[in-house]
Amino acid sequence: MPIPETMRAVEIARPGGPDGLRPTTRPVPVPAADEILIAVDHAGVNRPDALQRAGLYDPPPGASDLPGLECSGTVAAVGGAVSRWDVGDRVCALLPGGGYAEYATTPAAHALPIPGGMDLRAAAGLCETFFTVWSNVFDRGRLRAGERFLCHGGTSGIGTTAIQMARAAGARVWATAGSDAKCGVVEGLGATAINYRDADFVEALRAAGGADVILDMVGGDYVARNLKALAEDGRLVQIAFLQGPKVEMNLMPLMTRRLTVTGSTLRPRSVAEKARIAAELERDWWPRLAAGTIAPVLDEVFPLEEAAAAHAHMEAGAHVGKIVLKVR
Ligand SMILES: NC(=O)c1ccc[n+]([C@@H]2O[C@H](COP(=O)([O-])OP(=O)(O)OC[C@H]3O[C@@H](n4cnc5c(N)ncnc54)[C@H](OP(=O)(O)O)[C@@H]3O)[C@@H](O)[C@H]2O)c1
User: Which of 150, 151, 163, 241 is the most exposed place for a label (fewest CB within 10 A)?
Assistant: First the structure.
């Protein structure tokens, strides 16, 4: 298919609420030597897109100002230094931005093959969550078989992935969620559910011996409670602070119980670091996705032009798993 000069896209017309997202027309981006151009089929919607839309999470230097951190699609062009991919290959990819569009560029090393016979709709939501969970739960958190793992936000895109990966790695998993229906979902994925509105996750984990690793995106008063819920030598991994990053607390347990507090954010990491994560995922986790032993949990699909409705849906908090945009 010839590549057009312009494409449909959704831009952040003004920082603020979902209605600041507006359909637009943009030039089709041109891949650099080490990049591919993807004809986007579906694009994943992630909480960081909403932060960017609100003006709280600027794209890194050189990245598209359009939102969208992941997609699935077909390679439409390759840069001069790319040998791995050919035009016509079906891929899913981590993007530096720009996924809410008919075409997007990304470093060739940040694209992965579609696992097995997975459809492009489900594959669109793989990369942001799998890259984030792998680098935080396994790389930084060092979760091992037989350990106890607590995942907050158990029904989020991140949470549904983290529960499945931790279970597949042989860990025992607990997950928090804010309703009985959401608790049913995390139980279905193999976690012990804790409805945080009527139960205390600290008590639940301490009764089980304490968590070896906790993945948290809530912050605020959860930080001190997480430390209480950790076992000796436990690791708290922070990937967001939905209730704020500033806390006053007693850090003595870091010494007395040898705790580790760490975290990371994916988007500003270097091309080489993301390429390393991609290679680890392709080797260890894509075969499990291809075999269907783990699978993405899909919520709703919205047309690209209805990205504002997709964001409102995510921020209403009723979703379970990944929201995706149908681009073509
Ligand atoms: N560090 C990184 O590299 C990185 C990368 C991607 C995403 N993230 C972060 O990871 C989190 C999950 O991302 P996602 O795209 O999977 O988001 P999402 O699906 O919108 O999930 C947010 C989850 O947080 C839970 N939650 C708990 N307390 C909350 C509060 N005070 N306000 C809003 N939600 C609350 C919600 O569950 P309940 O309804 O059960 O409360 C919901 O499941 C986000 O905070 C995102 O910013 C970090």
Answer: 241
